[in-house]
Design a protein that fits this description.
This protein has 249 residues and is α+β, with helices and mostly antiparallel strands. It has helices spanning 22-31, 51-57, 59-64, 82-94, 122-134, 144-151, 157-166, 188-201; strands at residues 10-15, 68-75, 99-101, 104-109, 112-117, 179-180, 210-212, 214-220, 228-234, 240-243. The strands form 3 sheets. A 5-stranded antiparallel β-sheet has the order 2-1-8-9-10. Strands 4-5-6 form a 3-stranded antiparallel β-sheet, with helices on one face. It is globular, with a radius of gyration of 18 Å. 35% of the residues are buried.
């Protein structure tokens, strides 16, 4: 069964470091793309993992852009526009404050690798929860095909409840803020090689604080097209920092 929402642009509320920040630069080199500029680059091989294989292993986070999710991707409801969403996010961001995550850790989340707060950060989780709730009126309800696809992964009763209510199963207490660095790496040897590489590349950020200064709107123009930063709002800062007028190829 086809899902009409699948052909619509999708929008998400993310934290993402600014393009000029060291974390964004290192992450864009690792993933091979910057979501701010759209610039793509070749990914060099890592250890015994050839370039082509590594490109496969980071394909998902490269598509979405380096980020931490606050409101998962959604198609817009019929009665709202992109401008409506941007205006609402700007107004919301102006009432918020910067969040300082005490420490970042590099961890294995199942079979993928990510940077996460070393300990639960209540204020960051609260921001994510409120983004899910506050902007749900902008979300086009998930179609049958989308619900079926999500359920195929195997969901708990609580996750299915969240899927039905918010369009995504891993939100609220079922979600964990993370900055994804790989897709699924099922081979333990590959995962160990990549983990060692990431520990080296991201060493300046591991066991260091993270300043969450901005609330970003990312846009995906069509399925299989990359997400890019559409607008970036400074938390508590009032003005919009950037709006992209181009669309990623």
């Amino acid at each position: 069964m086809s899902d009409p929402s699948a052909e619509r642009p999708r929008y998400a509320l993310y934290y993402a470091p600014r393009a000029e920040e060291a974390l964004a630069i290192v992450a864009s080199r690792w993933l091979g793309r910057s979501p701010d500029t759209g610039e793509a680059r070749d990914i060099p091989p890592v250890g015994s993992i050839p370039r082509e294989r590594l490109s496969e292993l980071v394909a998902d986070p490269r598509l979405y852009g380096f980020h931490g999710t606050l409101k998962p991707p959604m198609a817009l409801a019929d009665d709202v526009t992109e401008r409506d969403l941007l205006d609402a996010v700007g107004a919301f961001a102006a009432t918020e404050r910067q969040i300082d995550v005490p420490l970042l850790a590099l961890v294995e989340l199942g079979d993928f690798l990510a940077l996460v707060p070393a300990e639960r950060c209540a204020v960051l989780q609260d921001l994510a929860d409120r983004c899910v709730i506050e902007f749900d009126a902008f979300r086009r309800p998930a179609g049958v095909a989308e619900l079926t696809r999500r359920r195929a992964a195997g969901l708990s009763a609580r996750q299915d409840e969240l899927l039905r209510r918010w369009g995504y199963p891993y939100v609220m207490e079922q979600g964990r803020f993370h900055l994804t660095l790989t897709g699924h790496v099922k081979d333990p040897g590959e995962r160990a090689t990549i983990l060692a590489e990431l520990q080296d590349r991201f060493a300046p950020f591991i066991d260091q604080p993270l300043a969450v200064r901005d609330l970003c709107v990312f846009r995906q123009p069509a399925p299989d097209r990359p997400f890019t930063v559409l607008a970036r709002f400074r938390l508590g800062g009032g003005r919009r920092l950037t709006t992209q007028v181009w669309r990623a190829a």
